Amino acid sequence: MDKTIKTVRGNPLAAEPLGRLLIKFAIPSVLSMLVDALYNIVDQIFIGRGVGYLGIAATTVTFPFVTILLSIATLLGIGGSVYTSMNLGAGKEAEAEKTLGTVFTLSVAIGILFTVICLTFLKPLALAFGATKGAQGSLSYVLDYVPIILLGAPFSMAAIALSSMARACGSPILAMGCFLVGAVINLVLDPIYIFVFNWGVKGAAIATVTSQIMSAVILLVYFLKKGHIRLRRKNICPTLPICGQIFAFGLPSCMIQVAVTILQIELNKAVVSCEMAGVGSEAALSSLGIVLRISSVVVAICVGIALGMQPIIGFNKGAGFEHRVKETYKKAVGAATVVSVIGWLICELFPAEILQIFGMNEPASMAFGIKCMRISLFGLAFTGFQVVSAQYYLAAGQAVKAMLLSILRPLLLMVPLIHIFSGIWGMDGILYAGPTADILTALIAAGLVGYDSRKKRKGV
């Protein structure tokens, strides 16, 4: 017991200054998330310039497929990493290795099952997610793009889940590096496949899957050969107790993606059903897709900060160092808020310049795109506080509160607001639903954090 306590106290997560520690863990996590968001944006730029607005509309329709996949991978990766951090903080390395084996097996198996189900019901799912038929519809582009993306699902899920495990094991640079390699591959292959080979959206999908395979291979080799905890044959068979812990800790983060999936489906359908003078539904969907991609950059940085915070809080929570948990949260909230405010200012001040990068030049579409960016992203400044607060409760083992904050904005507020506001103000109502949900979510999160802080000070 004394040896375990000594080992825990000698660990950098328990002893190193928190500001330096957060930078050490957050920067690789931020770069990992940022690289992923940026190469998705570059993907859209190549598709927009090489295929046109229907190509961007098709990838916007594809978001639900991707977010469903991401929700499952996030459940496994975040759930496994939180449980692993707590076990490492308590000196239980054998349990951490069992968790790693369970996460790997589940990610590959569920990825294969996801691919089979989605390919079997691809067309009805695409139509349900907002694809439209006809010569000017996005369905044909969706049917070209999605099957290839789905074939890469097992590799994508393994890469996402194992990168979270790498961060939990004290290797955030590896998590960043594997996605950086994948992003470079994607960025190199995109223009070749789209413009040189003239493969259109199929080329973009092939480039994406190739990058995902490479990221998964890098992480797999690491955990087989060099990891602080290893992927061993004896641990690859999932056990119910560990699965239960993974699902309990991972469910809040998973629910974020489930809520985002539902939101994206409802948003696509609402936009397509609204009529606007001078702007077709597919062009409006394309503009909204661009705006969502832009906002994803700010969200990615905030999520990266939150992920960098997670192993620090998880370890110190497991070790009983509550003062370090509190200070880590404060520093993470401050950093994420600065980022989200800067991102909001850029979107508000330079919308036309940003939209032109995606090849948007038609006056009516440009006018709508500017309006869409300025209104729907008005609440972007609150993103950092929301994201970090949800991840704080998750890392601290308070799954119910983490889940509440995770689904509050996209599901409990945004979805009903879209339908209520669009029924009153049409397309403008859809745009105003976003900032309204952001402000309400921030207020509720602040109230919850403040209430818990007062309880701790009173010793309740």
What's the end-to-end separation, in Å?
A: 29 Å
Rg, rounded, reads 22 Å
The helix fraction, in percent, is over 70%
> Element order, helices and strands?
HHHHHHHHHHHHHHHHHH
Mean pLDDT: 85
| Shape label | globular
Give the tally of β-strands.
Answer: 0
Report the uncertain regions. 1-7
Question: How many separate domains make up the residues?
Answer: 1
Strand count, sense and barrel status of the largest sheet are: none
Count helical runs: 18
Strand content: under 5%
Structural class: mainly alpha
Overview of this protein structure:
With 460 residues, this protein is mainly alpha-helical. It has one domain (2-452). The chain is built from 18 helices and no strands. The chain has helices at 2-10, 12-15, 18-50, 53-89, 93-120, 122-128, 139-151, 153-168, 172-196, 200-225, 240-273, 281-319, 322-349, 351-357, 363-376, 383-395, 399-425, 427-458. Helix 3 packs parallel to helix 9 (172-196). The two termini are 29 Å apart.
